[in-house]
């Protein structure tokens, strides 16, 4: 099949919910991809922060193959090793107390919302169910997580949205306090707003928020669907913010490309969701769990340290280019936002880069880079060379 045939086939019977670039991807190795015509692309996207250990990773592929041959699926009504082992590894490496596994980021955040409301119901009874989120946040595409998302553009068409959410300004504790009240049970935040434009929250704000939550007994819920699993240079971003969330969600990078999400809770929240209160047919599926265990093995402390170094290297390399179209960089680890200067649009720049062999993402008004965490220096240099050539 060639590119034109694939595009025609795709348009024949798939819902066109994605504004796709006019590029197909056929296969990959490391952080390098090839299309059907054999053209090469350097990947600064890893899906959208999903392929954390790169393409064609042998350790990851072998874990999946071995688990598929051993036990591909079993209902969560039975015990199975991969689920329990993955939960233990995650808790050992984060200090959290217990894990629940589902299949996506939105579903993981739905779990956080259910957890907060049930915790509050158990402690205080009805009427304390509002969750504060931040403006410019993104929490998912289900009706409830769309409502949680603090951007008006997402609150269209699909009425009625849910009750029980209010939005505060990021990095403004007074705004959070102003939105507070007797009806509040939790605060849900991304520590680096991803879709909103790769905007890290200020450390003082996050610590103030944690203190406020402790005073009010609001649960501090952290959405680490994008920032989690090594992306920012620590296994979870909260580990470098000096706060202990009550619960934290994850998804994108956890299983290196297989669909998986979930959340971790602390000791206080461990008893909240008991038998019958929350479930998922596929959640923690043995193959996804085995893949996630391989990802966590690969992302050991040295690999995480390297994520920070690679992020610094890429950002310095980009800023050295001194292009008219792009400006300063921001972010944490290998979650990088690049300012797009006035007179240029991120969509047009991204399309140009992609046509010329460098896959990049956009977020808010910025360019967004989420390379595989295992990207090599040579691949980063090839990507920087494309940026240099194309943005001339
Ligand atoms: C991607 C993302 C989600 C939604 O994840 P899905 O797997 O697409 O449901 C939620 N929160 C954040 C911060 C994300 O980046």
Automatic annotation (TrEMBL):
PROSITE patterns per record: AA_TRANSFER_CLASS_3
Top-level EC class: transferase
Highest taxon in the source lineage: Bacteria
Cellular component, GO, one term: cytoplasm
Residue(s) carrying N6-(pyridoxal phosphate)lysine: 252
Pathway this chain belongs to: Amino-acid biosynthesis; L-arginine biosynthesis; N(2)-acetyl-L-ornithine from L-glutamate: step 4/4
Cofactor note: Binds 1 pyridoxal phosphate per subunit.
Residue numbers binding pyridoxal 5'-phosphate: 105-106, 138, 223-226, 281
The enzyme's E.C. designation: 2.6.1.11
Cofactors named for this entry: pyridoxal 5'-phosphate
Record-linked Gene3D superfamilies: Aspartate Aminotransferase, domain 1, Type I PLP-dependent aspartate aminotransferase-like (Major domain)
Subunit annotation: Homodimer.
NCBIfam families attached to this UniProt entry: argD, PRK01278.1
Family: Belongs to the class-III pyridoxal-phosphate-dependent aminotransferase family. ArgD subfamily.
Additional record remark: May also have succinyldiaminopimelate aminotransferase activity, thus carrying out the corresponding step in lysine biosynthesis.
Official protein name in the record: Acetylornithine aminotransferase
Organism: Candidatus Flavonifractor merdigallinarum
């Amino acid at each position: 099949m060639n590119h034109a045939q694939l595009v025609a086939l795709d348009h024949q019977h798939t819902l066109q919910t994605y504004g796709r670039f006019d590029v197909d991807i056929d296969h990959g190795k490391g952080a390098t991809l090839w299309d059907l015509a054999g053209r090469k692309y350097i990947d600064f996207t890893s899906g959208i922060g999903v392929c954390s250990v790169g393409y064609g990773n042998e350790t990851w592929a072998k874990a999946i193959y071995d688990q598929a041959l051993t036990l591909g699926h079993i209902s969560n009504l039975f015990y199975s090793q991969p689920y329990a082992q993955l939960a233990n590894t995650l808790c050992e490496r984060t200090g959290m107390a217990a894990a629940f596994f589902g299949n996506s980021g939105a579903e993981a955040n739905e779990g956080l919302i259910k957890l907060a409301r049930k915790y509050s119901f158990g402690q205080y009874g009805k009427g304390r169910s509002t969750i504060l989120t931040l403006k410019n946040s993104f929490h998912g595409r289900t009706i409830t997580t769309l409502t949680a998302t603090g951007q008006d553009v997402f609150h269209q068409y699909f009425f009625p949205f849910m009750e029980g959410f209010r939005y505060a300004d990021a990095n403004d504790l007074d705004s959070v306090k102003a939105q507070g009240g007797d009806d509040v049970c939790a605060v849900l935040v991304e520590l680096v707003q991803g879709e909103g434009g790769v905007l890290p929250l200020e450390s003082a704000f996050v610590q103030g928020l944690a203190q406020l939550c402790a005073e009010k007994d609001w649960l501090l819920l952290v959405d680490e669907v994008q920032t989690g699993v090594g992306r920012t240079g620590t296994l979870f971003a909260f580990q470098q913010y000096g706060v202990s969330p009550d619960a934290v969600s994850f998804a994108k990078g956890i299983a290196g490309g297989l669909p998986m999400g979930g959340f971790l809770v602390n000791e206080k929240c461990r008893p909240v969701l008991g038998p019958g209160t929350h479930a998922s047919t596929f959640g923690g599926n043995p193959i996804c769990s085995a893949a996630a265990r391989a990802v966590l093995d690969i992302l050991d402390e040295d690999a995480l340290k390297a994520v920070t170094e690679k992020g610094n290297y890429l950002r310095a390399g980009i800023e050295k280019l001194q292009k008219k179209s792009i400006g300063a960089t921001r972010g944490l680890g290998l979650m990088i936002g690049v300012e797009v200067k006035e007179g240029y649009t991120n969509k047009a720049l991204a399309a140009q880069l992609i046509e010329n062999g460098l896959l990049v993402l956009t977020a808010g008004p910025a360019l967004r880079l989420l390379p595989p965490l295992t990207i090599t220096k040579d691949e980063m240099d090839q990507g920087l060379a494309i940026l240099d050539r194309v943005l001339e």
